[in-house]
Amino acid sequence: MSWRTEVSIVCPVYCSEGTLGRLVDEIDATLSPTYKYEVILVDDGSHDSSWAMIRQICSSNPNVRGIRLGRNVGQHGALLAGIRSSRYEITVTLDDDLQNPPQEIPALINALSENVDVVYGVGIQSEHSWWRRLTSIAVRHLFRILLGYSGAMKISSFRAFKTTLREGFSGDLGPAISIDSLLTWTTGSFNSVKVKHQPRLKGKSNYNLFKLIRHMIDSATGYSIVPLRLASAFGMVVIFLGLGLFLWVTIRPFLTNSSVPGFPLLAASLAIFSGAQLLMLGILGEYIGKIHFRVMKKPTYTISDKTS
């Protein structure tokens, strides 16, 4: 059997009991004629009946397995749990809301080759809200700058990759991970294909602006030292700015026979230098916090239950 006909589908689930049945049905209809496959549904600490629905689906469909996490760890942590449980040569990840059509899975698989290890499905037209699109663009630019991945503008949560890539991030990773960043640790062979992006079937997205910004910060400080270098550069700029202010205060009385007004200058100087210090302390704090969690060996996720 060809390696491209054995596929593990990993889907993180959060409060999506209403869409899981249709999602699995569409995956079955798409893959059953051609592929040997499994569907791994990872319940990321849902507070509805998603886990009960997963157990029900697993009891009637031998191709589906369920994993329940002990607490909510975020989309990427749930994905990692499923990826590490994959049994087949290719792993495909997609969301639980049917915005990534299962019918497009073969297009991603067919784009993999000996020279292409990861394929992203990029929506022809995004159905996300305007703020979600803008934030996603910012995240992709961040990946391009921090990770040196020129194709970062085409990343998405709908991806197919060779399962062996997980060997590059098999150790303890701590909390707040990024699957896309981890994939760049193992390979530089990426590609993308155009796929449909459908409107959300039910409910609303569980992502909000705070979570997306949090993901940006975690990606920046967890997988790159560029923020530290930017902080150092910013510190140098502030030093030269302070030197310029000092020279201005010292020289102006000789040139104009008038002194520099005290309080406005003092207030502006304090605001500039205090803001710069707090910014750099915040960046250092993010790095120290991640080191702290990894020294404590805080797990990326914990599994509380499995269906098989």
Give a verbal description of the structure.
- This protein has 308 residues and is of the alpha/beta class.
- The protein folds into two domains: 3-204 and 299-306, Spore Coat Polysaccharide Biosynthesis Protein SpsA, Chain A (Alpha-Beta Complex); 226-295.
- 47% of the residues lie in helices and 15% in strands.
- It has nine helices and eight strands.
- Strands 7-5-6-4-1-2-3-8 form an eight-stranded mixed beta sheet, with helices on both faces.
- Helix 1 (20-31) links the parallel strand 1 (6-13) and strand 2.
- It is elongated.
- The mean pLDDT is 81.
Q: What is the number of helices? A: 9
CATH topology of the largest domain: Spore Coat Polysaccharide Biosynthesis Protein SpsA, Chain A
Hey, roughly how much beta strand do the residues contain?
5-15%
Order of helices and strands: EHEHEHEHEHEHEHHHE
- The strand order across the widest sheet is 7-5-6-4-1-2-3-8
CATH architect. name of the largest domain: Alpha-Beta Complex
Low-confidence stretches: none
| Biggest sheet overview | 8 strands, mixed
Distance between the termini: 25 Å
Radius of gyration computed on alpha carbons: 24 Å
Number of domains: 2
Structural classification: alpha/beta
The overall pLDDT, averaged over residues, is 81
Helix content: 40-55%
So, the CATH homologous superfamily of the largest domain? Spore Coat Polysaccharide Biosynthesis Protein SpsA, Chain A
CATH class of the largest domain, named Alpha Beta
Number of strands: 8
Instruction: Please tell me what the overall shape is.
Output: elongated
